[in-house]
Amino acid sequence: MSESKSKNGGWRANKWVRAAIPALLLHCSIGTVYCWSLFSQEIADYIGFSKGATEWAFSFAIFFLGMSAAFMGNIVEKDIHRSSLIATICFASGMALTGFFIYYGGGHPGSLVSLIGIYVSYGFIMGIGLGTGYLSPVKTLMLWFQDRKGLATGLAVAGFGAAKAIASPIMTSMLSGLGEGGIYKMFLILAAVYFVMMFIGHLLLAKPADWHEPQGKGEKPSIIATIKTKPVTNYIGIWLMFYINITCGLALISQEKMIFKCLGLAGMAGILSTISAVFNAGGRLGFSSWADTMKDRNTIYKLIFVLSIALTAIVMLTQGIVNGNGNGLLIFLVLALVYVVNAGYGGGFSNVPTLLSDHYGMSSISAIHGITLSAWAFAGLTGNQVANLIVTKFGKEEELTYLEKGVEHTIKVNPTGYQKVLIFTIILYVIALMACLFLVKPTDKSKEK
To answer: Based on the domain organization, do 200 and 235 belong to the same domain?
Structure first.
């Protein structure tokens, strides 16, 4: 099969129309889940609850993303049209219902109905849409771009990472421009917009005409049997290093705005966070494309973990977060750490499906990738939550005054607490590197001369 045409010819057999564009439409929609921090405080204020109480909605969303991917991988494997439609309906309806329960909470401040409704809508229903929507285009992309599988998955997963950078200014503008009740109005409007985008993606998404799924019990082994074709420690190693990379990424990313403020960059925090999102998306596309040129894709994870360990160690030794305010070199080192972790966090996502396909083949890749995404579910409950716990338990808050657009602001920061988070992440990064080196065995391709 040529890269753009098969026996059907025309647009129906075009890899960009049938794989890349629908993947971007799906992932650029569901990736906006990472915009949560933009409006979480506003939701909390509007419905009369603490920010800590509403934060669980995001944690639940990531948890059910991973768990729905794990349990629905076989559905994705059998019928991408059904799975992409499920994703479209669940994500858009979950967003619309979130808007409704925010609206209800505005009229009934402190109502548990509102808070639990947001947990169910944003966390559970949207979470199912996230998991199935994330999985649905991945195998299709790898089938259309068989010679550049890393580039293919990088394109889609980069869309997931870039969604925050694209949607953030739009959401910010909507929140300020929609007037009273803008927060729930934004959710209702975006639910309609994302439904249209995802439904178009659902209609376009299709596997190559010459790809036929194995049929019958004798042709397609179970997922467990597929995993057992290699030493079980091999899969444990992949799952573990994927879980740790996400956990460490979330631990640092969840605190990055406050870290920027500790460095005396409070007025630039928004711009610096957008740059972080660009590195996140760039890592997804760059690392996966780079991996296409390597015999062993696991080399990418070795690079990610070595760079993360080295920069974390340097910032720890220099106490960069604590001492960085006004020190150009330390500011550079801390920013380098934040951006490398963002790039590695994104690169870990885009490389895992292709690494799995190199080890276990393509026939059950959606199902085995789905099970592996359970690591994302557990990381969603541990990464930012553990980081918040460390910041709460260590150090003390200090008042910091800064100017923004000529107006003086005073905020409270805990540089020592953020610095202590690095102890947690460097220990995990070292464990991940050990798993990468000793548990994940080279593929047959990497042994070829």
So the answer is: no
Domain for residue 42, yes or no? yes
By the 10 Å C-beta count (0-12 exposed, 13-18 middle, 19+ buried), 449 is classed as exposed
Same domain (yes/no): 171, 252: no
Can you say whether residue 252 is alpha, beta or left, with left for phi > 0 and alpha for psi between -120 and 50 degrees?
A: alpha
Same-domain check for residues 192 and 258: no
Q: Is residue 4 situated within a structural domain?
A: no
Q: Does a structural domain hold residue 220?
A: no
The DSSP string of 95-121 is: HHHHHHHHHHHHHSTT-HHHHHHHIII
Judgement on whether residues 190 and 243 belong to the same structural domain of the protein: no
Separation CA 240–CA 439 (nearest Å): 10
**Which domain CATH number covers 27?**
1.20.1250.20
Domain that holds residue 193: 9-207
pLDDT in tens, 325-366: 888 899 999 999 999 999 999 999 889 988 998 888 877 787
- When divided into structural domains, the chain yields a total of 2
Long-range contacts of 4-7 (CB under 8 A, 24+ apart): 6/208, 6/209, 6/210, 7/209, 7/210
Q: At what angle do helices 36-47 and 149-177 cross, to 10 degrees?
A: 40
| Domain C-terminal end among 207, 236, 258 | 207
Residue 406 reports pLDDT greater than 70: no
Where would I find the H helices in 145-231?
A: 149-177, 182-204, 223-227
Residue 365: in which H helix or E strand, if any?
Answer: helix 365-372
pLDDT over 80 (residue 270): no
Nearest CA-CA partner of 244 in 369, 368, 358, 341: 341
Query: Which two tokens mark 269?
Result: 């925090």
Q: Is the C-alpha dihedral spanning 148, 290, 304, 20 positive or negative? A: negative
Read off the pLDDT band of 40 (50, 70, 90).
confident
Instruction: Identify the helix (H) or strand (E) that includes residue 403.
Output: strand 398-404
How many other C-beta atoms can be found within 10 angstroms of the C-beta atom of residue 47? 27
